[in-house]
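Subject: sequence -> structure tokens, single chain

Hey, anyone have a minute? Need the predicted structure for the following. Not urgent.
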Amino acid sequence: MICPVCQTLNDEKALACIECGADLTPTDDDGEIVIRHGGMGVAGVIAIVGIAVIAIWLVIQFVLVPMWFNNGNVIGEYSLNPREVEASIVVGFHENTQLDPIVVCPPTMRGTPGATVSCEVNLGTTVRSALVTITETGSFTWAVVK
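Reply:
Had a minute. Here:
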């Protein structure tokens, strides 16, 4: 903004001249002060709303949807049903040893392929551990640790 008194070039938002101190408050034809709005325009608001919408869409698309389709797990992670694992160990143990163990697995069995979880195998006189390994397909294998 150019000062009407001394013709010095000032910042567009200046309220007083940096050279002579003259009042640079904008006025209309009637001498009324024009209030400047320092906010952003419609285009700025539209841009911010657009960015927010895209950010929300990305979170839904790449975080929430994969979790919904993967039983609440992070991508590449699997959950095992502890009751199925316990039943498999009992059946396998019975077929190989004719013993009926009491098997207790943790209530949450979750991990990426290759992860192992330990279950307790109570044979009455001894207690052993069965290591359950999550496979690439989301199923499992197990082996009793001696």
